[in-house]
Amino acid sequence: MPKPPLTEAEARIKKRAEQAKDGLKATAEYEAAAVAQREKTAKLRALRLAKEAKDAAEAQVEPKPVKKTKAKKKAE
Questions:
Q1: Quick check: 27 and 35 in contact, CB under 8 A?
Q2: Rounded distance, CA 34 to CA 38, Å?
Q3: Dihedral angle at the C-alpha atoms of 6, 7, 8, 14, nearest 10 degrees?
Q4: pTM to 2 decimal places
Q5: Where do runs of H (alpha helix) occur along the chain?
Q6: Which residue in 66, 47, 49 sits closest to 57, CA to CA?
Q7: 14 in Cβ contact with 6 (< 8 Å)
Q8: Which of 2, 31, 32, 40 lies at a C-alpha separation of 20 to 30 Å from 57?
Q9: How far apart are CA 47 and CA 53, in angstroms?
Q10: Using CA of residue 41, residue 44, residue 48, residue 49, what is the dihedral sign?
Q11: How far apart (Å, rounded) are the C-alpha atoms in residues 25 and 19?
């Protein structure tokens, strides 16, 4: 038995329901992308801070020798 054609009101209701469903899906995808971005940023920040700490520790262990020079007197 074939289904009767939808009325305009039924078609609008069905269309809005599909739009709402698509909106929820898009929101979920957006939120998942935002969470992934925050996790990636936190990971990269941790790596950067670890590298900076390592570089700072190495700089303290091996100080560069300072050359002393004689100051030249200005001609009067």
A1: no
A2: 6
A3: -40
A4: 0.53
A5: 8-61
A6: 49
A7: yes
A8: 40
A9: 10
A10: positive
A11: 10
Measured CA distances, 74 to 68, 69, 70, 71 (Å): 19, 15, 12, 9
Q: Please, what sign has the CA dihedral across residues 32, 34, 36, 39? A: negative
- C-alpha torsion angle, residues 39, 40, 44, 49 (rounded to 10): -10
Enter the tokens of residue 26.
């898009």
- Contact in structure between 37 and 29 (CB atoms under 8 Å): no
